[in-house]
Amino acid sequence: MTLHRAARTALAEADVAAKLAAVERLHADWQAGLVRPGPFEEAEPLTEAGRPPRPELLPPKAMPRRELNGPDGHRALIHALCHIEFTAINLALDAAYRFRAMPADFYTDWLRVAAEEVLHFRLLADHLRGLGGDYGDLPAHGGLWETALATAHDPLARMAVIPRYFEAHGLDVTPAIQARLRGYGDAAGAAILDVVLRDEIGHVAAGDRWFRHLCRDRGLDPAVEWPRQLAAAGLPTPRGPFNAEARARAGFPLEDMPTA
User: Fold this and answer.
1) Do 42 and 100 contact (CB within 8 A), yes or no?
2) Does some domain include residue 63?
3) Please, which residues bridge with residue 57 across strands?
4) How many CB atoms lie within 10 A of CB 152?
5) How many domains are there within the chain?
6) φ, ψ for residue 57, nearest 5 deg
7) CA distance 260 to 254
8) Within a domain: residue 27?
């Protein structure tokens, strides 16, 4: 089986346990040289990633605020983080599946990202079960996957929007979420986010690296192209507070950010 067919199979899998296992197997097979990219036929249209019947998906504006003011709010926050990580698995798989004729290192990066997102999901889902909940108990939103579809036409657009915008924003907000969890007494949840933050720095770095690679190939100035891609996606200029240390470690320092 080629890399792209295996990635599509994992991406289309709706059963959570089977998807997690498929991603880990694909990552291991890629590292062992058991799957290869190509032939580079056109990607078959794929508008829906595999996901379980629950959680129910609601529009982002219909989602209730997740106040950390008791057990229900605590579970809601961890559930929301679980859903972000589950969606991130599909986003990384989609990058490996959808974009053809990229260098092998591109697929190495996004399969590694997918495997790390599986780890994050496992840690958070286990933690949620320890709190008396489970993934799917509460509604979630599909905004990130909709953004993936909006950038499906071009890997440059995908790298600009998902890792450089949304995942980089995750670097900015994670310390505040950790502080809330510690203040509530959930040191274990905050420690899980230490793992997530460590790995997400690498994910932003990969996205930044491939964004710059594609800009070089097309003779584009990254400082000009990134705001153009954000505007094309209908996204506002990022606003702080920023996690300057994490962004610098990702190779995406604040001086590379556009000004509003």
Assistant:
1) yes
2) no
3) 140
4) 18
5) 1
6) -95, 130
7) 13
8) no
AA identity, residue 114:
A
- SS3 of the chain: CCHHHHHHHHHHCCCHHHHHHHHHHHHHHHHCCCCCCCCCCCCCCCCCCCCCCCCCECCHHHCCCCCCCCHHHHHHHHHHHHHHHHHHHHHHHHHHHHCCCCCHHHHHHHHHHHHHHHHHHHHHHHHHHHCCCCCCCCCECCHHHHHHHHCCCCHHHHHHHHHHHHHHHHHHHHHHHHHHHHHHCCHHHHHHHHHHHHHHHHHHHHHHHHHHHHHHHHCCCHHHHHHHHHHHCCCCCCCCCCCHHHHHHCCCCHHHCCCC
Whether the CA torsion 149, 152, 153, 156 is positive or negative: it is positive
Q: Is residue 172 part of a domain?
A: yes
Take residue 120 and report the two structure tokens written for it. 């994050």
Asked, for residue 46, whether it belongs to a domain, the answer is no
pLDDT digits (tens, 9 = 90+) for 172-224: 999 999 999 999 999 999 999 999 999 999 999 999 999 999 999 999 999 99
C-beta of residue 160 within 8 angstroms of C-beta of residue 228: no
Supply the range of the domain harboring residue 245.
151-260
Other CB atoms within 10 Å distance of the CB of residue 240? 9
Per-residue pLDDT of the chain (260 residues; tens, 9 = 90+): 789 889 999 999 999 999 999 999 999 999 999 998 866 555 566 788 999 999 999 887 777 777 888 999 999 999 999 999 999 999 999 999 999 889 999 999 999 999 999 999 999 999 999 999 999 999 998 888 888 899 999 999 999 999 999 999 999 999 999 999 999 999 999 999 999 999 999 999 999 999 999 999 999 999 999 999 999 999 998 988 999 999 999 998 888 776 55
pTM above the 0.85 mark? Answer: yes
